[in-house]
Design a protein that fits this description.
It is a single chain. The chain is globular, with a radius of gyration of 23 Å. The chain is built from 13 helices and no strands. It has helices at 2-31, 49-55, 58-89, 96-108, 111-121, 128-134, 147-174, 179-187, 192-203, 205-220, 224-229, 241-251, 255-280. The chain folds into two domains: 1-31, no CATH class; 51-283, MetI-like (MetI-like fold, Orthogonal Bundle). The protein is an all-alpha fold and 287 residues long. Helix 7 (147-174) runs antiparallel to helix 10 (205-220). It is 72% helix and 0% strand.
Length: 287
């Protein structure tokens, strides 16, 4: 009876999970094994042909490595900055509430609004970025129109927006840490760095694991900023995987190839998330 009651409680969540997660994933993989249906030609089974075409697609590899670099920089940068901000605003400071609000404000702004704000900041010669670097004698640059700077410019926007979001989780975790732990560390002669490294960071590992998984997902589902700010240019220098999937599916109407790319994206996310859980879970202390 107790087991039946438990399964009944889980049933609504299981139905939603299967309907909106597992079934779409399986259906996407199945569609990737067929050709794209046309008005006069139905879809036909092509097996792994779409995957072979993907391996020979230079734009896919460009988007893939762009996304890897994007994730490798934005994830640690946003998490570290979020932790630093949380440690700061958790102290007793004058205007602490204003600081928390200022750090969190970028998070509540719509993605398209953020993209348009930074589009103005990056405007050559007249934008805020060129106005600032001009004080140091650095010439103006087309930040979003140059291959070397387009992707880093998008990274800055992502870090600026996400650091405040992750800060909230760290701040909530810090407020659950007993002040007696800091007092005990001081009595033992521990420095602030030793307390942070040996006591605080291990206690924050559950939050860090949660934040890292969310940061990973966000890094591979970025499409709004790319669409508004660069459209993947110049010469695919800022094309990310999800934006390329969007282009293939809704601009070229090649739904089968878009499904193939989606399967690869899902596989990359699954492997990365599994690696994080296996590696970090052993180092995580749950209170």
């Amino acid at each position: 009876m107790h087991a039946t009651h438990g399964w009944l409680l889980l049933l609504p969540a299981m139905v939603l999970l299967i309907a909106f997660t597992h079934y779409p994933a399986v259906a996407t993989f199945w569609n990737s094994l067929f050709s794209t249906p046309k008005a006069t030609r139905p879809a036909v089974f092509v097996g792994m042909d779409n995957y072979h075409a993907m391996l020979e697609d230079p734009v896919f590899w460009q988007a893939f490595w762009n996304n890897m670099a994007y994730a490798a920089i934005t994830i640690p940068a946003s998490v570290i900055i979020a932790l630093i901000m949380a440690l700061w605003v958790n102290e007793r400071l004058a205007g602490r509430g204003f600081l928390r609000l200022a750090y969190f404000t970028p998070t509540v702004l719509p993605m398209v609004a953020v993209a348009n704000i930074w589009l103005f900041f990056y405007t050559p010669q007249y934008g805020m970025v060129d106005q600032i670097v001009g004080f140091f004698g650095i010439p103006a640059s087309n930040w979003l129109g140059t291959k070397a700077t387009a992707l880093p410019a998008l990274m800055v926007v992502t870090i600026w927006k996400e650091a405040g979001f992750f800060m909230i989780f760290y701040l909530a975790a810090l407020q659950q840490v007993s002040p007696s732990l800091r007092d005990a560390a001081r009595l033992e002669g521990a420095s602030r760095w030793q307390y942070l490294r040996r006591v605080l960071l291990p206690l924050l590992m559950p939050t860090t694991l949660f934040v890292l998984v969310n940061a990973l997902i966000n890094a591979f589902r970025m499409v709004d900023h790319v669409l508004v700010m660069t459209r993947g240019g110049p010469d695919n220098a800022s094309t990310l995987l999800l934006y390329y999937i969007y282009e293939v599916g809704f601009s070229y109407w090649d739904t089968s190839y878009a499904a193939t790319l989606s399967v690869v994206l899902l596989l990359v996310l699954s492997i990365a998330a599994l690696a994080k859980f296996c590696w970090l879970d052993r180092r995580t202390h749950y209170q």
